[in-house]
């Protein structure tokens, strides 16, 4: 019982550490994902078929639950994540406990509670990684259960459950193929306690269940053209162009801020990175084959973050669970070794090694406490620099909602789809991100299609918060059809459709 009491306290700590985020403005990805989820929930448009979306729909389903159960406000989304993250903390404990000891699981859970609250890793943003770590951890939990052997039937059942949660993770974001499916398959090939072919078939068949559910629901039932799904030519083409034109190449100003963030990532992850490496070395040295999956998991998660080529902090969130579990094992084992000695004493080499690992922890805790004590209005500004923009996005959206009816359209020229979310009004185009957001990604055909859709459904309000660049045809739409109604300095110009105007 004592372990469960401590785990409950750790979960409470996890929740308390999230409370400073509760009133922070919702960032642009909250707006984008939230708008798609809202349209889907209210029957105003299907993802993929009616709204351009490159990610699999897991996060939209989560957001639909938030909107339905908690409402559409800042606190609803942050509160839900704080509660959701408790489940992930419990799952981290379970993996640590089953692979090592309950004490190691508790240390891992405590570390995860801390690291899932670090502002610089953007846990307070709408990052899909924050949510898919739960099914990811569950996948490896079942893999750990199956790795101990037992009957062939029970092992294959566990492996199938691991595959099912791997498929659910994939339904959140496709890169999970690298940091979830990849290490699982490598582990099964190297260390499967049953026939490798049977294990891979069990994992693969269960993995395909969510994928087949996606195809049945969107393609068969709702008649979504295959080309518009995340697996179709349109989205794959956009993804390819995005990956071949990384953020640092498209925007030199952005990469410097990302370099600063990357340095912060290395600083914040240094403690669990050091302890995690110690745990990984111990596992590889002692030949703990089942726990080897943690090493594979952590390595593939780091690889996936690097392959993003943008080095955004949240791409490294999937490394946190395996590193916390490895660290929990190393810390628990070290503490057990020290306290089991008849006469408590340590050698100078041991003292130096422990100090090298404890000092980063002290610096980390100091930085975390200092960050969480920042005034609410400064915390988000310090780590994103855009909180005023996000707050104004909410203000503009709510203004539009108050001055339109449900059948009116609104169009946003910039990179703030939160306008659609907060206004609860439909975009006139398939894409909620205009071409100016990333000109290297959108083809001429895409631009022409969007322009035609805009003319066909002239919105009541045209929100401008970015220059038109080479897209002068969109500027002409404003010149001929709109008048400036209101400015929201320093970011937004709100144009209203002229009475009885024609395209």
Q: What this model shows, in words?
A:
With 503 residues, this protein is mostly helical. The chain folds into 2 domains: 2-372, no CATH class; 387-497, no CATH class. The protein is built from 21 helices and 4 strands. The protein has a 4-stranded mixed beta sheet. The termini are far apart. The model has no long low-confidence stretch (mean pLDDT 87).
Strand order across the largest sheet: 1-2-4-3
Number of helices: 21
Portion of residues within helices: 55-70%
Oligomer: single chain
Number of domains: 2
Query: H/E order of the elements?
Result: HHHHHHHHHHHHHHHHHHEHHEHEE
Summarize the structure.
The protein has 503 residues and is mostly helical. It is 66% helix and 4% strand.
Features of the shown structure:
single chain; four-stranded mixed β-sheet; mainly alpha; 66% helix; 503 residues; globular; 21 helices
């Amino acid at each position: 019982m004592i372990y469960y009491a401590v785990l409950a306290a750790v979960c409470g700590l996890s929740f308390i550490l999230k409370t400073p985020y509760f009133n922070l403005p919702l960032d642009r990805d909250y707006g984008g994902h939230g708008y798609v989820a809202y349209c889907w929930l209210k029957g105003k448009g299907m993802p993929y078929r009616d709204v351009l979306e490159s990610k699999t729909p897991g996060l939209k389903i989560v957001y639909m639950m938030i909107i339905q159960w908690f409402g559409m406000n800042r606190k609803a989304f942050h509160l839900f994540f704080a509660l959701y993250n408790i489940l992930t903390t419990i799952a981290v404990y379970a993996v640590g406990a089953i692979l090592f000891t309950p004490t190691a699981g508790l240390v891992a859970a405590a570390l995860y509670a801390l690291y899932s609250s670090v502002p610089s890793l953007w846990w307070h943003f709408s990052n899909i990684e924050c949510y898919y770590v739960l099914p990811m951890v569950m996948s490896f939990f079942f893999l750990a259960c199956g790795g101990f052997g037992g009957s062939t039937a029970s092992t294959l059942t566990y492996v199938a459950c691991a595959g099912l949660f791997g498929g659910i993770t994939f339904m959140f974001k496709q890169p999970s193929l690298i940091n979830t499916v990849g290490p699982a398959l490598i582990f099964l090939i190297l260390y499967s306690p049953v026939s490798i072919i049977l294990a891979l078939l069990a994992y693969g068949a269960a993995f395909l269940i969510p994928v087949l559910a996606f195809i049945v629901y969107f393609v068969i039932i709702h008649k979504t053209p295959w080309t518009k799904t995340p697996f179709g030519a349109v989205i794959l083409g956009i993804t390819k162009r995005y990956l071949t034109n990384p953020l640092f190449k498209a925007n030199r100003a952005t990469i410097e801020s990302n370099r600063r963030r990357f340095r912060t990532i290395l600083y914040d992850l240094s403690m669990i990175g050091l302890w995690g490496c110690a745990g990984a070395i111990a596992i590889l040295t002692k030949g703990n084959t089942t726990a080897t999956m943690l090493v594979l998991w952590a390595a593939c998660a780091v690889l996936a973050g690097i392959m993003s080529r943008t080095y955004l902090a949240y791409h490294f969130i999937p490394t946190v669970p395996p590193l916390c579990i490895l660290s929990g094992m190393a810390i628990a084992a070290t503490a057990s070794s020290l306290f089991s000695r008849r006469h408590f004493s340590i050698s100078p080499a041991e003292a130096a090694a422990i100090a090298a690992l404890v000092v980063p922890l002290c610096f980390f805790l100091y930085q975390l406490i200092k960050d969480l004590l920042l005034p609410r209005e400064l915390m988000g500004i310090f780590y994103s620099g855009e909180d005023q923009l996000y707050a104004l996005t909410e203000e503009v959206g709510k203004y539009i909602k108050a001055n339109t009816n449900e059948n009116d359209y609104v169009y946003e020229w910039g990179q703030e789809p939160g306008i659609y979310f907060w206004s609860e009004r439909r975009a006139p185009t398939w894409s909620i991100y205009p071409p100016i957001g990333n000109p290297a990604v959108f083809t001429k055909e895409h631009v022409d299609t969007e322009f035609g859709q805009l003319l066909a459904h002239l919105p009541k309000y045209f929100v401008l918060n970015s220059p038109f660049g080479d897209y002068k045809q969109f500027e002409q739409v404003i010149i001929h059809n709109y008048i400036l109604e209101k400015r929201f300095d320093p970011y937004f110009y709100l144009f209203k459709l002229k009475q009885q105007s024609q395209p």
